[in-house]
Amino acid sequence: MENITPSNFIEQEIVSDIKEKGLKTIVTRFPPEPNGYTHIGHAKAICIDFMTAKKFKGYTNLRMDDTNPSKESMHYVKALMNDIKWLGFKWKHMYYASDYYEFIYDCAIDLIKQGKAFVCDLSADEISATRGTLTEPGKESPYRNRSIEENLKLFEDMRAGKFADGTRTLRAKIDMAHPNINMRDPVIYRIQHVRHFRQGDKWCIYPMYDFAHPLSDAHEGITHSLCSLEFEDHRPLYNWVIDNCRLIKGVKPRQIEFARLNIDGTVLSKRYFISIVNKGYVDGWDDPRMPTLAGFRRKGYTANSIKEFCKRIGVSKSNSLVQPHILEACIREELNQNATRVVAVVDPIKVNITNYDSAKAEKIKISNNPTVKNSKSHTMMFTNELYIEREDFMIEPTPKFFRLVPNGYVRLMGAYVIKCDEVVKDENGNIDHLNCSIVYDAKEQGIKPKGTIHWLSRKYSERVRTRKYGNLLKEGEVYEEEILDKIINPESMIEKVSYVEPSALKQKSNMQFVRMGYYIEDKKLSKKGDRIYIETVSLKDSK
Ligand code: ATP
Ligand code: MG
């Protein structure tokens, strides 16, 4: 381990810990609370936890931080496990903080015996009112100087269920004048008569995160407890717990914080997710508009693209706002290499070729992936009745529009040069179809169209639905629960009736709809006879 070259500040710290403390094995953990699905911010933490341990040939545990029974469930545990596996990481042990409740309780008893914890009868409001401010010290609780015997008795009574929720807490006795407010006699146990999804009704007192977390780390032999920056202010308490709980044996874990991932325009908060799921703004935690791994997966993102993103944003000590195009570039680059090319007309208009035999059909070759050397190809049929993309035609073209216009020429990809002879409208004045003719002797006439567009035979194509997803909140809006209905973007999903070449229906993995974007079949809703394709990412960065 001595000759490992650190590539970020966390690894630097670990290298010096190895030297100073003589650590033999580096152990990290990923500690999600099973009260929601894994989101892209968690993916950053997961990558850091697993990759750091791997670099030092150590290991990582998965620990469910299930100390908040009113919000947690096995459903979320399974979803979290599934996502971490999907990312391709293997944990060494899977634990639950609730498995340590007995140990954590014993640590609390030990603190009481040392005179370092007391049962407090103040209400939650009274506790926060006496906590003080950044500039003023807090006020000591009138219950602070209870005898050890009385505290032991009361804490046992708390466990035995003799008191109602919120009537008493166990608080660490530290320092009400401490400059760090988290150190002002923090609550370490609360009474909650709530059924726990694994422990059932065994407990009616639950340890607070700040107490359970360091003890769980220590109990598992975690050497480095890596977490996001909002826990920095909690580190003194983390260390206080580690230093004062005498039941801890072995190496003392060390907390190191890294910048939380924030993506511009993306809300990464479980409260928000739960709210939009429950209010039906999305179709579940795996909705393609959700920044959850389930959402990204359904949208066609690969595990590699997510990991590549985490690699590109790096590990830093200060918070910053990451631009979403960085993530999009990761999947786009991968799909450019891997995605099979097929033709789809996402938003069709009809084209009739007036000088092509209606009984005729020609095979046209399409490369499966022109970026790959010697890539295979497949065939498409050309007939007299076609679809082209609505955006490839303009009645009154803007300057620099090089695709089809009335009386203009365009090349049909892999096939002929055509001329638009007539725009036929319906009774409402909308385009019904275009009458076009093939210019068989375009070369001889010296006609070289500047634009090439894709097309599909109406006879040899399949009708499908395509969906493009945008931001769930209107541009520039910031999430506020109270005004959610006003800031939700009504056009965050746009569905179109589209057509694809028949071979597309066989593609289960990512495809490029040539010239249009990367798409994938929606595994949740698509079915035979009603196929739905989701846009993973556009072909080009919109910026
Ligand atoms: P909540 O939204 O309820 O605060 P959370 O996102 O913090 O929840 P946890 O399950 O507690 O969810 O997080 C598990 C781990 O993931 C924590 O160690 C936390 O540091 C890390 N984490 C959470 N959000 C981010 C983020 N945006 N960037 C980096 N790491 C994160
Ligand atoms: Mg949290």
Compact description:
Among the domains are: 9-262, Rossmann fold (3-Layer(aba) Sandwich), CATH 3.40.50.620; 263-338, Glutamyl-trna Synthetase, Domain 2 (Glutamyl-tRNA Synthetase, domain 2, Orthogonal Bundle). 27% of the residues lie in helices and 24% in strands.
User: What name does CATH use for the topology of the domain at 9-262?
Assistant: Rossmann fold
Give the amount of beta strand, in percent: 15-25%
Overall mean confidence score, pLDDT: 96
Please outline the major beta sheet.
7 strands, mixed
Helical percentage: 25-40%
**Class based on secondary structure composition and strand pairing:** alpha/beta
Adjacency order of strands in the biggest sheet: 12-25-26-27-23-24-13
- At the first level of CATH, the class of the domain at 9-262 is Alpha Beta
* Amino- and carboxy-terminal Cα gap: 44 Å
Query: What is the CATH homologous superfamily assignment of the domain at 9-262?
Result: HUPs
Present as ligands are: adenosine-5'-triphosphate, magnesium ion
In one word, what is the shape?
elongated
Work out the radius of gyration.
31 Å
Q: Could you give the count of β-strands? A: 27
How large is the count of helical segments?
A: 14
Under the CATH scheme, which architecture of the domain at 9-262 would be assigned? 3-Layer(aba) Sandwich
- Stretches where pLDDT is under 50 for at least 5 consecutive residues are none
Give an overview of the whole structure:
The protein is an alpha/beta fold. Among the domains are: 9-262, 3-Layer(aba) Sandwich (Rossmann fold), CATH 3.40.50.620; 263-338, Glutamyl-trna Synthetase, Domain 2 (Glutamyl-tRNA Synthetase, domain 2), CATH 1.10.1160.10. The chain has 14 helices and 27 strands. A hairpin with a 3-residue loop joins strand 25 (511-513) and strand 26 (517-521). Helix 4 crosses helix 7 and helix 11 (303-313) crosses helix 12. The model has no long low-confidence stretch (mean pLDDT 96). Bound molecules: adenosine-5'-triphosphate (ATP) and magnesium ion.
